[in-house]
Recover the amino acids of this structure.
């Protein structure tokens, strides 16, 4: 009996030991390798969350692709440290007096990472490809500002009619369908990155692997292990390479915030998001960074559903919500409470901030809310409010906010609402089909102008999802889109936002922000309120 | 035997076909679409996208296109990762999940059987109680809890092993441990109970009476029969573990294929849903088939070819 026991134990112990020694020795090898490397190179350790969906510029329309791609390539402009567009691939540009014709001069020393000259033709090729219906780019609508762009994309026009033309090797002429003051900002977007035409002709999938990738940005794609990691190296062919301080950027792809945080703690990452259950203690950390993001967390009424056809009832519910309490005690993520729809950070022609200028358009006021509810119910002849269901997509954080709002309605108006949650995609479909009464929403700006926020609520917008339609509002938006005079354009937008809150088809909760931890010694990693991560100026001690 | 195998093959194909068809129609019943975005979407852009992926075609046409893709084993491009095909996603993820899975199964099997045998031989002794305590703990602690505890202790506190990612053998230790504990516990319990039963059988008494060494009695005579229930569950276990596990792969940031099962559905990435489902069901059916064949070798009383010949 004992003999075989010993044998089995022996085998088990040997197996375990063998496994352990094999593992520990290889780990040591790795550690040595890492040290040797970090001795002479500056490597920033980042986490991309997951595999980029695509490095084909017009295809990867999401932050997991474009945060990285923004550092591998470069458009005519790049957003600077102050979030304003500055010359990048273009050295300078001229704008016609009516604001519709832009002529870009590309830098003489702008080159591709394979040594080719960057030409205006590469931009023409890329921008027409963005708009080509065959490309089926989800970002194509960003190119609709270009004359002929929308027609080409929806099948009514042809490629030849898109008004982008390479006048010479280094000169690109673009005609817009209407003056667009923020065009220079829009084209900093990765959808407008150039594509090396000869590379793309040779290999249609040049963007799929590190070996074939050709960019023109501050970094090159040195290694790309799909679904696992990427390494960027400083681009020696970049026109402004003296500004770039990092030698390498290493990207992990870890899609779990707890794991990400643990890797940050053990030195495997230089920055991390904050795990939800640790936010309270980490919010006090010295390494905490909070930055604005242009976006709004809000709720939509469906004005086709009782009782929300009534403006006063909508106003009453909106005024019963205490935004400050929600950010202080519920979300606890240092967000700014929102008392309007357009977020902070948009500067007008005379330097004023849109949000500050247009003021607080909806504020918590329990007494006023109670009064409005009473009036509204009288107008509709309600003895009792019809049942209300508040819908949100399944998630712990949305649930907390929803429960708080439910509580606030009960406390301030004695209105009972039922909560209902659904899986994200189902929820979104129902919201678009106007099947909800009152539902959670969010908006993240696609380009840096208040008009991007406000155009959401024009009558046919796919972002409207409230059933609300207002002629006066639509007209202000239309006027703002065609106005050359910036002061007047901003006036139109101020007016439009005021109408939105007079009518109250939505009510805001808070503006979004980025909250993260960053190791000491890391500097100038720029995160724009609208836009993608910038590592051009980043440094690490 | 050959007739039996052929017959089973036909059954397998029919099973996979039925699963694939059901999945296709169920998947189209779920509200939502891959292009459902919170952000503003443009009608023309949406239409271009739908045309690109044939989602504007009638369901019947989509079904035929899809059957074609199964027969040709080419599931086409993923909708959410437009520059990748489903085949390349699975081709990249499966070897990693399988590597993790094979180590997991090996460790679970060796340690599970060993625990079970010790427990049975020392029935109602301290070793038995200890082994079964370990087994109960293994079954009742969910692997994601164990994973987090292992990372916290061994990676963050003691810094012996890396917390996550998949780049060296050291990175494999924690996920394999976290994943193997559950199956190990199940195998240990199964082995113990069937070993206890086997040890009371007459032929074991005969073997002992012949004067065979205890080692020979246990390993050569008892263990072989006691392992039958373990073999039975191995088919499902292998298929489940080798094709990746969503939670463990997510926690350890392992680039396996587990996430495609879940994310494919969340994102309504139809080609990925179909690819993963067909792959998994084909794999599972094949594993069950292997298990049936293994029965024949382990227990001569189960005669596969006779069953095939008589029908």
């Amino acid at each position: 009996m004992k003999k075989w026991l010993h044998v089995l134990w022996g085998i088990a112990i040997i197996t375990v030991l063998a496994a352990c020694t094999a593992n520990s020795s290889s780990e040591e090898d790795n550690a040595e390798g890492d040290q040797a490397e970090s001795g002479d190179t500056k490597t920033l350790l980042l986490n991309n969350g997951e595999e980029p969906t695509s490095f084909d510029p017009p295809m990867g329309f999401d932050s997991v692709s474009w945060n990285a791609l923004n550092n591998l390539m470069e458009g005519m402009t790049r957003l600077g440290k102050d979030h304003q567009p500055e010359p990048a691939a273009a050295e300078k540009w001229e704008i016609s007096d009516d604001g519709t014709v832009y002529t870009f001069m590309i830098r003489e020393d702008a080159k591709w990472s394979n040594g080719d000259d960057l030409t205006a033709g590469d931009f023409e090729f890329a921008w027409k490809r963005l708009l080509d219906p065959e490309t089926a780019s989800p970002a194509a609508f960003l190119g609709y500002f270009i004359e002929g762009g929308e027609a080409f994309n929806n099948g009514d026009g042809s490629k030849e009619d898109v008004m982008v033309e390479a006048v010479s090797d280094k000169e690109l002429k673009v005609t817009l369908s209407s003056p667009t003051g923020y065009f220079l900002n829009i084209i900093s977007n990765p959808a407008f990155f150039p594509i090396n035409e000869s590379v793309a002709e040779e290999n249609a999938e040049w963007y799929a692997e590190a070996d074939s990738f050709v960019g023109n940005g501050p970094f090159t794609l040195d290694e790309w292990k799909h679904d696992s990691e990427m390494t960027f190296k400083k681009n020696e062919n970049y026109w402004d390479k003296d500004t770039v301080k990092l030698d390498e950027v290493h990207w992990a792809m870890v899609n779990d915030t707890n794991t990400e945080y643990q890797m940050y703690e053990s030195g495997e990452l230089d920055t991390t998001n904050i795990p939800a259950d640790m936010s309270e203690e980490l919010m006090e950390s010295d390494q905490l960074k909070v930055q604005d993001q242009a976006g709004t967390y809000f709720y939509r009424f469906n004005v086709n559903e009782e009782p929300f056809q009534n403006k006063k009832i909508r106003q009453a519910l909106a005024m019963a919500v205490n935004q400050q309490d929600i950010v202080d005690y519920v979300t606890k993520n240092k967000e700014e409470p929102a008392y309007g729809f357009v977020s902070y950070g948009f500067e007008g022609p005379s330097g004023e901030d849109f949000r500050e200028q247009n003021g607080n358009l909806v504020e918590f006021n329990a007494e006023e809310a109670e009064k409005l509810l009473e009036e509204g119910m009288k107008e509709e002849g309600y003895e009792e409010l019809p049942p209300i269901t508040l819908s949100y997509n399944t998630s712990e954080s949305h649930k907390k906010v929803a429960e708080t709002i439910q509580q606030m309605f009960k406390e301030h108006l004695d209105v009972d609402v039922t909560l209902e949650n659904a899986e994200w995609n189902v929820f979104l479909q129902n919201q678009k089909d106007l099947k909800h009464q009152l539902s959670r929403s969010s908006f993240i700006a696609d380009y840096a102008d208040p008009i991007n926020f406000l155009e959401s609520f024009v009558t046919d917008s796919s972002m409207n999802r409230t059933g609300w339609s207002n002629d006066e509002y639509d007209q202000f938006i239309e006027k703002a889109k065609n106005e050359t005079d910036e002061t007047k354009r901003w006036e139109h937008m101020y007016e439009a936002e005021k109408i939105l809150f007079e009518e109250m088809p939505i009510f805001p909760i808070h503006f979004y922000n980025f909250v993260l931890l960053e190791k000491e010694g890391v500097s100038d990693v720029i995160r724009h309120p609208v836009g993608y991560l910038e590592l051009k100026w980043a440094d690490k001690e | 035997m050959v007739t039996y195998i052929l017959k089973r093959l036909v059954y397998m194909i029919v099973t996979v076909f039925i699963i694939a068809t059901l999945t296709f129609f169920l998947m189209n019943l779920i509200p939502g679409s891959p292009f459902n975005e919170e952000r503003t979407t443009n009608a023309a852009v949406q239409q271009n996208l739908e045309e690109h992926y044939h989602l504007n075609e009638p369901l019947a046409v989509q079904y035929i296109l899809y059957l074609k893709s199964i027969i040709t084993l080419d599931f086409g491009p993923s909708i959410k990762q437009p520059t990748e095909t489903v085949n390349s996603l699975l081709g990249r993820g499966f070897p990693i999940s399988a590597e993790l899975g094979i180590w997991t199964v090996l460790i679970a099997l060796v340690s599970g059987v060993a625990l079970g045998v010790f427990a049975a031989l020392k029935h109602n002794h301290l070793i038995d109680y200890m082994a079964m305590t370990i087994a109960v703990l293994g079954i009742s602690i969910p692997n994601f809890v164990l994973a987090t505890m292992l990372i916290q202790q061994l990676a963050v506190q003691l810094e012996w092993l890396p917390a996550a990612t998949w780049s060296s053998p050291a990175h494999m230790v924690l996920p394999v441990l976290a994943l193997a504990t559950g199956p190990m516990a199940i195998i240990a319990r199964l082995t113990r109970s069937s070993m206890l039963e086997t040890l009371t059988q007459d032929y074991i008494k005969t073997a002992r009476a012949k004067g065979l060494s205890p080692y020979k009695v246990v390993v050569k005579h008892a263990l072989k029969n006691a392992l039958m229930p373990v073999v039975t569950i191995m088919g499902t276990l292998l298929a489940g573990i080798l094709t990746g596990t969503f939670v463990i792969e997510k926690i350890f940031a392992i680039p396996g294929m587990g996430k495609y099962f879940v994310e494919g559905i969340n994102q309504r990435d139809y080609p990925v849903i179909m690819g993963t489902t067909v792959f998994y069901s084909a794999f599972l059916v094949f594993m069950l088939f292997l298990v049936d064949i293994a029965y024949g070798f382990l227990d001569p009383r189960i005669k596969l070819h006779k069953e095939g010949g008589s029908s």
Q: What stands out?
A: Residues 16 and 22 of chain A are 10 Å apart (CA to CA). Residues 12-38 of chain A have pLDDT under 50 and may be disordered.
